[in-house]
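step 4 of 6: structure.
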Amino acid sequence: MLSKADRSASFAAAAALVLFLIGGLLTTVVPPLVDKSWGRPFENHDPAKGPTGKLRPYTALELKGRAIYVREGCWYCHTQQTRTLVADTKRSGWRGVDSPVSTPDEFVYDSPHLFGTKRTGPDLSRVGGKYDTQWHHTHFRNPRDLVRGSVMPPFPWIANDPEEFTALATYIQTLGRAKDWRPDKDYEK
Amino acid sequence: MWNTELHSEALANWSFWLMMIGGLGFFVTLWLGGFWQGWQWNNPSIPFIDTVVALKPVWLVRFFSGTLIFCGIVSFAYNIMATVIGARAPRESAAAVA
């Protein structure tokens, strides 16, 4: 069979394609079929099994904020995924507490998902409750007023529109809140 | 294909070197900048904003390299278009005479 692949380019190409297809199916389609927890919303009431909490569907206001997040392209620069790297859990963490790694069951109501691929800005998967809403208002008006050296563009049309700002801020404050991971409910509102 | 000489060989050399230098600029900055950024991200004691500020010179170089590549591609496209149009024109005028 190997010598056949040596002689026939089309056989070699077809075999490579089939192998690639098998690998692709094993990494994309099979895992959620084997592990059913991927499709169930996150819920845990036992502190021994890690962070407790419950994922709930988005409210109408949060969905509106999410649509603004998509419309303004926040996801071009901000990811929503704490990877399995120590540095990621520390960066998503707060006041010395490491954040839990993102799991599939936290994104059940996210359609389309907003994981993003490029981190020009910081990851937002655990930003909910990190800053208060007044902070976000000032930050959207001009990020450099709060973060010197920031390259995020200002969004005055959101900061100056109370309806849009409230929706977006409400959505942002939900990010990563399904897992109640901070001790003593140390969340900003 | 059009049985003719290139519109301008000098311009073709310009296209080549513009894309070559721009491409090298991109290659070096993406490679080194990527390593640098990843290394900084992996050290949580470096605040995130410092990793952004550190990349600003890299983005500047990429802007200029990208401009070079863009000029190279535009000049290449112009050269090819001019070659094709130049090759067609004489034949069409010949057809008009006949």
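step 5 of 6: annotate
 - Strands of chain A lie at 43-44, 52-54, 179-180.
 - The first helix of chain A runs from residue 2 to 7.
step 6 of 6: archive
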